[in-house]
Amino acid sequence: MSRPTQYDREEALQKAMLIFWKKGYHATSLKDLEKGLNMKPGSIYCAFSNKENLYLLALELYVGRSVTRFQAHMDQAASPLTGLAEYLRGFARNGANGGAPQVCMLTKTLVDVTSTAPEIAAQAKIHLKQIRQAFADGFARAKAAGELSEKADCAHLARRFQAAVTALRFELHLETDQTDIAALAEDLAQEIEALRSERPDIAHP
Amino acid sequence: MSRPTQYDREEALQKAMLIFWKKGYHATSLKDLEKGLNMKPGSIYCAFSNKENLYLLALELYVGRSVTRFQAHMDQAASPLTGLAEYLRGFARNGANGGAPQVCMLTKTLVDVTSTAPEIAAQAKIHLKQIRQAFADGFARAKAAGELSEKADCAHLARRFQAAVTALRFELHLETDQTDIAALAEDLAQEIEALRSERPDIAHP
DNA sequence: AAAGTTTATGAGCGATCACTCAATTAAAAA
DNA sequence: TTTTTAATTGAGTGATCGCTCATAAACTTT
Questions:
Q1: Which of B128, B173, B187 sits opposite A110 (nearest CB)?
Q2: Cβ separation of B23 and A108 shorter than 8 Å?
Q3: Which of the two residues, A70 and B96, has the higher pLDDT score?
Q4: SS3 content of chain A, % helix, strand, coil (to 5)
Q5: Is A173 close to B111, i.e. CB distance below 8 A?
Q6: pLDDT digits 0-9 by tens, A52-63
Q7: Domains contained in chain A, CATH given
Q8: Strand D close to B5 by CB, under 7 A
């Protein structure tokens, strides 16, 4: 079976993700990665093929974690709709989810590479859709729990929710005052809670 | 007075802005600019000092136009609050303001350069604040017209409005279906109109 | 025309880019 | 131990990066 790898692939990938997330695709050089991963160029290419592929893998890791975190949050929420609203408030609390006060990596990717690396952009759009689907599932749960009107359009609400998340995370990126972010998050959270159906248990006509 | 310049400075600057806006700061090379402006490297540096300075000038041009366009829109609106709501709907209509279906250049800048070109990021934040102030002025006009409660916090509303614009323009960037963008814009516009005070002419207690 | 002044030119600067590959090293298998 | 197999290395690839500067060109003034 020959010589085993010296690095931990998962660990290297996670480091790469953080570097890419912080600096962006174009601004991150192989030198940055060599230093950050503590790997020589040859090893990086042996392990991850090339910069673009490494970036795609980093994106995948990012999305997987995001979805997992969101679902974990929803599972421990008092109710689906409350969970969604709280998810927005959460951005204002800890300084950010996972300790990284930044734009969503997918947003950053799409802004960075849409006109220069279309394949990466296409993949990022797919990932955004995955996350939006997770949000839609959350709204569907709220509907099933009678918190939303039967007529509520979950896909539509999910897009709006994602827009709110995007905007909030962009404010985090700007390092806007904590107070102002909290106020914005509170506004957006209340918009979600305002969707709560007044008649929680009416079946269709 | 010696040899006159061959190029039109304003025109060159506008072209540079469009190139930077499309590709971003890092991804735009001097070659791109040489081609786009039809100027040789020496001339570009003679006219605009360096890439960073040219970018800052392009940003300034962008912001000036954005503010002007917003104010022109507000001046011809039926009422301030209606104008604000219509401004959001406007993004869904023409495919974008000025024919450029993209993220706001300031958003793009901040995502692109915050961790790699701090001076540009700092300037972009100042510009964002300028625009937010223009939005706040719009809300102040609405308040003066009795469309908003006396207690309304214009600065706070302006930040929320700007967040809505950011999110909407990001959707434009994604080339989301026209229908979905229109639905999102309509939602956001209605949130603005929902602020309309039911008692338009009550002075303070 | 000649002198003076400013702009335009583009080959080329050193630095850095993403990336390669022949040589070396380290482990498992024989 | 020897052989086999794969991982690691890092100097070096050509391309491109932002940028410079000596020279040529175009205009006004004398």
A1: B173
A2: no
A3: A70
A4: 70, 0, 30
A5: yes
A6: 999 999 999 999
A7: 59-193 (1.10.357.10)
A8: no
